[in-house]
Amino acid sequence: MTAKLHITGNAAADDLLSTDPLALLIGMLLDQQIAMETAFEGPKKIADRIEGAFDAENLAAYDPDALVEVFKQTPAVHRYPGSMAARVQALCADLVQNWGGDASALWTEGDPDGKALLKRLESLPGYGAQKSRIFVALLGKQYGVEPEGWRAAAGPYGEEGSYRSVADIVDADSLTRVRETKREAKAAAKAGKAGA
Predict the structure, then answer these.
(1) Of 37, 64, 42, 36, residue with least CA distance to 54
(2) What is the domain range of residue 156?
(3) What pLDDT is stored for residue 1 in this prediction?
(4) Domain membership flag for residue 34
(5) How many separate domains does the chain show?
(6) Fewer C-beta within 10 Å: the chain N or C terminus?
């Protein structure tokens, strides 16, 4: 992989995301109810703290209580260490069982088109429709993974020139623009509920 991601503002964390598909998949999994940068720094914190290799096999087999402790260490990996450690283990177990422990197999094995890639992602533990579309967009916009139909599969997240998600963050300015777009969307949703 030749991508050079700039998501977290932490060079070491971004290097791991740029070179390790599992790290990117886990970062996306962690991206809920915490700041995007914190979520995507999570894989580096995990890699630095666990015993053994940072790979799907080791994480799937890791002692669950020990992994929760890894998540709790300061600075914490996530504000919900127990549930998110369990989700990371479930994701890794699925990768071991169905993809030979190789996260990149999701987009390389059998040369899937965008629709098939989206379906594969949606089948993963912790990956719903929105998270899967954002990940397809992240792969296409920044990772160089552009199967036929990937923009359509990513929906609005795949639009060129948009600032909707982590897929659009390439520097501090784009991070600010993504945050503004998310704030506006939340305000619009709140206004819609108030008017209903």
Answers:
(1) 42
(2) 11-162
(3) 46
(4) yes
(5) 1
(6) C
The pLDDT value given to residue 154: 98
pLDDT at position 20, please? Answer: 97
The CATH number of the domain holding residue 44 is 1.10.340.30
**Which of 85, 48, 43 is CA-nearest to residue 64?**
85
The secondary structure of the chain as a DSSP string is ------SSS-HHHHHHHHH-HHHHHHHHHH-SSS-HHHHHHHHHHHHHHSSS-SSHHHHHHS-HHHHHHHHHSSSPS-SSHHHHHHHHHHHHHHHHHHHTT-TTHHHHTT---HHHHHHHHHTSTT--HHHHHHHHHHIIIII----TTHHHHHGGGG-TT--SSGGG-SSHHHHHHHHHHHHHHHHHHHHHHHH-
Q: Which portions of the chain are predicted below pLDDT 70?
A: 1-2, 195-196
Q: Is residue 21 part of a domain?
A: yes
Whether 2 is covered by a domain: the verdict is: no
**Residue owning tokens 């994480």:** 59
- Asked if residue 142 is part of any domain, the answer here is yes
Contact 121/132 with Cβ under 8 angstroms? Answer: yes
Reading the block at residue 161, the tokens are 């020139």
- Please report the sign of the dihedral spanned by the C-alpha atoms of residue 10, residue 185, residue 160, residue 154: positive
**pLDDT at position 2, please?**
55
CA 177 vs CA 2, 158, 170, 172, 182: distances in Å: 25, 16, 11, 9, 9
